[in-house]
Automatic annotation (TrEMBL):
Protein's name according to its UniProt entry: Rhamnulokinase
MF-aspect GO terms: ATP binding; glycerol kinase activity; rhamnulokinase activity
Family named by the database record: Belongs to the FGGY kinase family.
Domain Carbohydrate kinase FGGY N-terminal: 7-256
Record PANTHER family: L-RHAMNULOKINASE (PTHR10196:SF93), SUGAR KINASE (PTHR10196)
Domain named Carbohydrate kinase FGGY C-terminal: residues: 266-457
Upper lineage: Bacteria, Bacillati, Actinomycetota, Actinomycetes, Micrococcales
Length: 486
């Protein structure tokens, strides 16, 4: 064991950050993190659809890392995580198009195309994934269909490699092309048993097998910083800095930093999405799990993230964006305080209704849902916020019950990590609706999980996830919310 400092790049769908993490695994152990850069991640609408501004993001990552290395020249490695499923296509070293955003509507056509070739029940047996219309395989099928029509979606035909977002950043830093396994598990093209690319499925879908790079596991070294990148960071002559694979799917990193006992706990990783489930040793591929739309994503150390995607704080942030477009100024803390003091009952809607997935006027869509179901629609922003929080809390509680039932886990506590842990009303109402205590925090679970997997690879900590989680529990004692009846 030892001590040292690593840098974590954590890109969320709403914002990105570069964080320094200092880990001392000796004795009782300590863990400290410090954010050195934070930047917005604003999607861009182009003629071809909704995209990420990946070029802009990678510039911000570079300047964040340069700052981190100026402030802490002793950094021993860098790790990168981001949201899942989205990818860049490259010809040689060149990115062919700005990557599509998973909320772009094109994937609907891809779903049909894929299910004609491989029905969902077969896919579930092969890849273990819940149905999400934007999973990479559907996006690729849509891309392939567009390319065949020659309407600008033809990047796939020109590409010689496909890199998921964190792997793209790692490539820009090191020149190495890899696919980190936890994130690759969200493509739908990784075998649930083999944990290798599903060559047969790739071929049946008419996708070019050669674009998929070699798989690596969290903890493996991806490569060292390219000379010109190191020079740009002002560390030219120093010992070559390593880029280490972490759980590059942000949810995989977040789950590492949940200070839980997996045999008796559920987790909610609550940011833009609410990922609700349990950690297992083996996948659950039953008809019941498929019908309940539970996913078996790859976790760090070969664990399984058995969970359901629940619409998360997106419902709130996209509503706030709409009110701002309408000329209102909305301050989140004040809005939540006002929501907490709403006393009249509000409508609890189905947070997972697919109509809430695309960007746009969410308050209008919530009101439309209420009208269709003969329920009163909220009126003021405070009532909307209360209705959103109640609806999320109910969807979270239901997913916890389902995860426990489907996996046979005796859930005694719910850990809620990510930005949602700051939302006291959401934590309390989740506890109330689940009838279980909610342990909230850490807020920066994703960056912490990224830091810890690097620290372990550098030999600073013990080997098991348990020892990593013990460090989290000491450094970031969770806040406890007891359920209140009613
Ligand atoms: C959370 C997340 C979810 C994934 C969604 C889209 O940030 O990574 O796990 O389903 O974003 O990639």
């Amino acid at each position: 064991r030892g001590a040292g400092t690593v840098a974590a790049v954590d890109l969320g769908a709403t914002s990105g950050r570069v964080v320094l993490g200092r880990v001392d695994g000796r004795g009782a152990g300590t863990l400290e993190i410090r954010q050195v850069a934070r930047f917005a991640n604003d999607p861009v609408r182009l003629a071809s659809g909704l995209h990420w501004d990946l070029s802009g993001l990678s510039r911000r990552v570079d300047s964040g890392l340069a700052k981190a290395l100026r402030e802490e020249p002793g950094v021993t490695s860098i790790g990168v995580d981001s949201w899942a499923v989205d990818y860049a296509l490259l010809a040689g070293d060149r990115m062919l198009c700005e990557p599509f955003h998973y909320r772009d509507e094109r994937s609907a056509a891809g779903v049909e195309a894929v299910h004609t070739i491989a029905p969902f029940a077969e896919l579930y047996r092969r890849n273990g994934l819940q149905f999400l219309p934007f999973n990479t395989l559907y996006q690729l099928a849509a891309e392939r269909a567009q390319g065949a029509q020659g309407d600008g979606g033809g990047c796939l035909g020109l590409a010689d490699s496909l890199l998921l977002v964190p792997d793209l950043i790692a490539f820009q830093l090191t020149g190495e092309r890899v696919a980190e396994r936890t994130n690759a598990s969200t493509t739908g093209l990784l075998g649930i048993d083999s944990r290798e690319w599903d060559d047969e499925l790739i071929e049946r879908l008419g996708l070019p097998r050669s674009v998929f790079p070699r798989l690596v596991d969290p903890g493996e070294t991806i490569g060292t910083l390219r000379g010109e990148v190191a020079a740009g960071f002002g560390i030219g002559s120093r010992h070559p800095l390593e880029v280490v694979a972490v759980g590059s799917h942000d949810t995989a990193s977040a789950v590492v930093a949940v200070p839980m006992r997996p045999e008796s706990a559920a987790y909610i990783s609550c940011g833009t999405w609410g990922l609700v489930g349990v950690e297992l040793e083996r996948p659950v591929l039953t008809d019941a799990a498929r019908a309940a739309n539970f996913t078996n994503e790859g976790g760090v150390d070969g664990r399984v993230r058995f969970l359901r995607n629940v619409m998360g704080l997106w419902l709130l942030s996209e509503s706030v964006r709409q009110w701002e477009r309408d000329g209102e100024t909305v301050e989140l803390a004040a809005l939540l305080a006002a929501a907490a003091s709403v006393t009249a009952p509000v409508t609890v809607f189905d947070a997972n209704d697919p109509r809430f997935m695309a960007s746009g006027d969410l308050p209008a869509r919530i009101a439309e849902w209420c009208r269709e179901h003969g329920e009163p629609a909220p009126g003021t922003p405070a009532e909307f916020a209360r209705s959103i929080v109640e609806s999320l809390a109910r969807a979270f509680a239901e997913a916890v019950v389902d995860a426990a039932r489907l996996s046979g886990t005796q859930v005694e506590t719910i850990h809620l990590v990510g930005g949602g842990a700051l939302n006291e009303l959401l934590c309390q109402r989740t506890a109330d609706r689940a009838g279980l205590p909610v342990l909230a925090g850490p807020v920066e679970a994703t960056a912490i999980g990224n830091v810890l997997v690097q620290a372990r690879a550098q030999g600073f900590t013990g080997a098991g996830l348990e020892s990593l989680r013990a460090l989290v529990a000491t450094a970031f004692p969770p806040r406890r919310y007891e359920p209140v009846a009613g």
